[in-house]
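We examine the record.

___
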Amino acid sequence: MSKIKNNNNKLAYIEGWLSIVVNTLLFGLKYWAGIVSGSIAIVADAWHTLSDSVTSIIVLIGAKASSKPADKDHPFGHGRAEIIGSIIIGVLLAVVAFDFVIESIQSLRNRDVTVFGTLAIVVTIVSILMKEGMAQYAFWAAKKTSSKSLKADGWHHRSDAFSSVVILAGIFLQPYFWWIDGVMGIIIAGLLFYGTYEILKDAISTLLGKDADPELIQKIKDMAIDCCHNDLNLHHFHIHNYGNHQEVTFHIKLDGDLSLNEAHEIADKLEQKIKKELGIIPTIHMEPL
């Protein structure tokens, strides 16, 4: 269990620091290109990229906090600090998106015309490639670790890649439409709001509590058959998610003629198998057939 947690934290640290370095470099490039071209969309996108560094710091803090062992005040560990971190990331995305909308509307009202150059094109393409690469790594790490904040950070990277795609399209359309820079800002805001929705929906749902995943239930049932060589009639599943610490409770049915020691031995054997193979702490309630 501790080895799994250490590997999870290591991936979170790598993703966090890599994101901070890459985003800071991209911020400088985008801001320079935005100032040179006079593009509100590119400058705003630069600040969006810099905000990714902030969210990555939150990922690092969340990984550090969630790695703390359980104590008297937090008997189930500190794993939900990571979920709280993903909620903060979602809120930051919403704030950035709202700022995009305000600046874009102002640009349209002023009928601002932007002239893009080769620098803007090159920087935008570099941004797309690097940010999508970061997103893919974050999603991969999130899948390996079941990390909510890493998944949220991946969405943040992808939203930045999407916004750069929109900007690149706008650069080539700008000669035909004076209003393209302002419209791009509004489109990017829409992408950010969608990312916010996905992040907050997942994080809040976890905090409120979700039904056990049918796939997980089936795995446990298969383990019971493999472990005990008969159908224990597993039912009444409840999953408790504490970030990197999960607990599952369920009922099994046993022959009423079994002694207490025999019944306990069956339940304990299944609990140890689930803990070892799934990294989940199980609690089993026994019932007579």
User: Anything to note?
Assistant: The chain has a mean pLDDT of 79.
